Amino acid sequence: MTVETEFMGRVLKDAGRMVLEGSRSTEVKENVCGIFDVVTKSDVAVERFIIDAIRREFPDDEIVSEELNPDSNPGCRFWTIDPIDGTMNYSRGIPLFGVQMAVVENGSPIAAGIYLPVQDEMYLASSDGAFLNGRPIRTACPRPLRECFVSTGDFSRKSQHFRDAQAIIFSECYSDIARFKVFGASCVDYAYLSCGRTDVHVRFTNKIWDFMPGLYLAEAAGAVYDKKLQQETSILILCSSQEVLEEATEAILPRIISCFRRS
């Protein structure tokens, strides 16, 4: 265990306790697109708690976080924090939400953690690998796409292209897979793929605090994806193995990209 993951394990556990005991009452969160979103008092309180902990133990590091530091332009080493990923679920009493964080050095993550407090599942990742409650985890063994569980993110509604892409995945790709799952929290999507509960995760990557912790965890557990595709288009098709990625890319990617060619 690295210094960073040992720290994450302690802080995420305490943060998760705060989340479970905190206020779930919501306020509408304004954004530039006018899309409905919410924030709770717990989001802000937990984020402040984690930021204070980082500043005590890593005073020279910078921080990018969802509620208090979303527009930071960090230097060579920084932490990214999502205090409650899955706030909508949390506010409605749906037990699929978590606290997540990662530390990035010279543009690449070196450690990440996700804590799902209702399930008491602590996921940590570093160069040593990926772990769930201290035990090593790996992605699922290769299987045909028609036998795969595929999760999709709650695609952003700010663009008609994103809305069209989600509709197409559900309609045109359904016959290619076993089941679709929409958990409503990216931390759950990444965690479940990392420990073999699902096989494929499809989303558009946007805010670093939303995807960086889980993506690094999944890679440490053996997941694969087309890095060039993700960097150039923000389309992420994350798979349990190279075999599954090849089949999923052939079946799903052309249909998603077709949305961006219509105008």
List keywords for this structure.
four-stranded mixed beta sheet; globular; D-Maltodextrin-Binding Protein, domain 2; 8 helices; alpha+beta; 263 residues
Describe the structure.
- The chain is of the alpha+beta class and 263 residues long.
- It folds into two domains: 3-136, Fructose-1,6-Bisphosphatase, Chain A, domain 1; 145-260, D-Maltodextrin-Binding Protein, domain 2, CATH 3.40.190.80.
- Helices cover 39% and strands 25% of the residues.
- It is built from eight helices and 13 strands.
- The chain has helices spanning 3-21, 41-57, 87-92, 160-172, 186-194, 208-220, 227-233, 242-260; strands at 26-28, 38-40, 62-65, 77-85, 98-105, 108-116, 121-126, 129-132, 135-136, 149-152, 179-181, 200-204, 235-239.
- The strands form three sheets. The chain has a seven-stranded mixed sheet, sandwiched between helices.
- The chain is globular and about 50 Å long.
- It starts with a helix and ends with a helix.
Would you identify the CATH H-level superfamily of the largest domain? Fructose-1,6-Bisphosphatase, subunit A, domain 1
Q: According to CATH, what is the class of the largest domain? A: Alpha Beta
What is the N-to-C order of secondary-structure elements (H for helix, E for strand)?
HEEHEEHEEEEEEHEHEHHEH
- Strand fraction band? 15-25%
Shape: globular
Q: Total strand count, please?
A: 13
Low-confidence segments? none
Instruction: State the secondary-structure class.
Output: alpha+beta
Topology-level CATH name of the largest domain: Fructose-1,6-Bisphosphatase, Chain A, domain 1
Total discrete domains: 2
Main beta-sheet strand count, sense and barrel state: 7 strands, mixed
Q: What is the average of the pLDDT values?
A: 88
Strand order of the largest sheet: 3-4-5-6-7-8-9
Number of helices, where a helix is a run of at least 4 consecutive DSSP H or I residues = 8
Distance between the termini: 50 Å
Radius of gyration from the alpha-carbon trace, in angstroms: 18 Å
